[in-house]
Design goal:
about 70% helix, 14 helices, flat, three-stranded antiparallel β-sheet, three-stranded mixed β-sheet
Length: about 525
């Protein structure tokens, strides 16, 4: 029992200790919480005071900014007020100045009116004196004022006309002398500055071969190869006893060149039969077309001519294979272009336009079609179709006087064309045949009744026929021109065209002894 009591007492003691411990811990927890709360309150108070201070600082800053802006606005307003006051004072001064000027103008106007009245009185006095003097002069001379004025004016006109005519005659004589000298100087200098080449072409091409055995292969069995070659090229192939040579005959240099190159490739390849011939000829024809275009482009680049139409470039390339009286047409066009540029430069004109017109002046000789038109007119139409400028077209069409020359380029191109074609060695024509053709032209026109004299000029391109005015009237002169033109077309062979000009005039001659 005692043990149980002791155990119970111990348990109770332990329980009381535990309870006391719990009571103590609870009391301690409450005091710690109070401490935390107090600390929190103190921190909150500190934060609140900081925020209040921060708000006060921001308020002061905003207040300072507002006061500064208000001061700035006040300054601007004060500045504007001062400017307005200054402007107002200026306007007041200007108004006073204007008033002063108006007063001065008014006084000046009054003085001018007074002076005008004085001048009017003096003018009347002068007019009266003039009338008195005029009446006195008319009385003394016996002529009225109008008659005297007419005589004086007529006398002055006659004197001025005589002086002007004398002055004009002196100027014309001086200009004629200087013009001849200047023209000779320009032509000679243009010729000297241009280096020319002599190029003669014929209507045949000789194709050289290594041995005469190749002639048989070119002719072929029963002449099939040579007939196929002639049909494909349009060139007559002459195979005769000439050693190691075959003659290609034809008036078209392009076709002759195609035939020559085709023969060269066929002989080098060794396969010569009609099918092969046709294939090679077509291939060579394409090569020639490419070479024509390349030649045209290279010529335009060498001469510094840009912007040419592709058709014009192709025609320039075709000139390489054309000739006129043995003169290579492309070489002639280049010479004419360079001469035209030099002469235009000497005369103060545009050398680029002159060079362009000189290069294109003979494109009517190499058209794709063959219309019945003179080559100058045809070339002008081709240039117009290719959008060339009017002055270029006129120079092309007028270089043989088929149309009127409207620009200074036209006579320059005409002269340079004649220089290039007429220089020694440029063209090949037998002198006897040339003289005979001119004589035939003159004699043909002289065979008509009423014709007094005939002159073949411009290398036979123009025939001038002088008829008697008493034998042939104007209508008959026109008919005579047409008849001579038809007879020349029917009976004569000539290059280009011939212009027939019938001249009928009446002269009255008398002598003062």
């Amino acid at each position: 029992m005692d043990v149980l009591i002791y155990i119970a007492i111990a348990v109770v003691a332990i329980a009381l200790g535990v309870l006391a411990t719990l009571i103590i811990q609870k009391a301690m927890g409450r005091s710690r919480a109070q401490i935390i709360i107090d600390e929190a309150r103190r921190e909150g108070e500190v934060l609140r005071q900081k925020e209040v201070l921060k708000g006060r600082e921001e308020g002061m800053k905003i207040k300072d900014d507002a006061e500064r802006q208000a001061n700035q606005r006040l300054q601007r307003v004060q500045s504007s007020e001062s400017k307005m006051k200054q402007r107002e004072s200026q306007l007041n001064q200007q108004q006073s100045e204007n008033a002063r000027q108006r007063n001065e103008l008014e006084s000046l106007r009054q003085r001018l009116d007074a002076e005008e009245q004085v001048l009017e009185q003096r003018r009347d006095e002068v007019e009266r004196l003039k009338r008195n003097a005029q009446d006195t002069l008319e009385h003394i001379s016996g002529l009225s004022a109008e008659e005297a004025k007419e005589k004086l004016v007529q006398s002055m006109k006659d004197e001025a006309r005589t002086a002007a005519q004398s002055y004009i005659n002196d100027i014309m004589d001086d200009a004629r002398i200087n013009a001849n000298k200047e023209a000779k100087r320009i032509v000679i200098q243009s010729i000297q500055r241009l280096a020319t080449e002599i190029a003669i072409e014929n209507s045949v091409t000789v194709f050289h071969i290594d041995s005469d055995e190749i002639k048989g292969r070119i002719i072929g069995r029963e002449g099939r190869n040579i007939r196929a070659l002639e049909a494909a090229t349009g060139i007559e192939i002459i195979v005769d006893d000439t050693p190691e040579a075959i003659v290609l005959s034809g008036f078209d240099p392009v076709r002759r060149e195609i035939a020559r190159l085709a023969l060269h490739q066929l002989v080098a390849d060794g396969r010569i039969h009609p099918a092969r011939i046709e294939e090679v000829v077509n291939k060579v024809r394409k090569q020639i077309e490419e070479e024509i275009n390349e030649t045209g482009k290279r010529t335009a680049i060498d001469l510094g001519i840009h912007g040419l139409h592709p058709d014009l470039i192709r025609m320039i390339g075709k000139m390489k294979y054309r000739s006129s009286y043995g003169q290579n047409l492309l070489q002639h066009a280049r010479e004419t272009a360079n001469l035209s540029a030099i002469m235009a430069s000497e005369l103060g004109l545009n050398p680029k336009k002159a060079r362009r017109a000189g290069l294109l002046h003979d494109i009517g000789k190499v058209p794709d079609e063959e219309p019945e038109l003179p080559h100058a007119i045809l070339g002008m139409k081709i240039a117009e179709r290719c959008k060339e400028k009017p002055e270029i077209c006129n120079a092309i069409g007028a270089h043989h006087d088929e149309i009127e020359q409207t620009t200074l380029l036209a006579p320059i191109v005409q002269v340079c064309d004649a220089i290039s074609g007429a220089r020694p060695g440029a063209r090949r024509e037998i002198v006897e045949a040339y003289i005979k053709r001119l004589n035939d032209l003159e004699q043909l026109a002289l065979s008509y009744p009423g014709v007094i004299k005939t002159y073949a000029i411009q290398a036979g391109r123009e025939l001038r026929v002088i008829v008697g005015a008493e034998k042939i009237d104007d209508a008959q002169a026109e008919n005579l021109s047409n008849e001579i033109a038809r007879k020349i077309q029917d009976e004569m062979t000539y290059p280009g065209q011939v212009k027939i000009t019938v001249i009928r005039e009446t002269r009255a001659v008398s002598f003062a002894k």
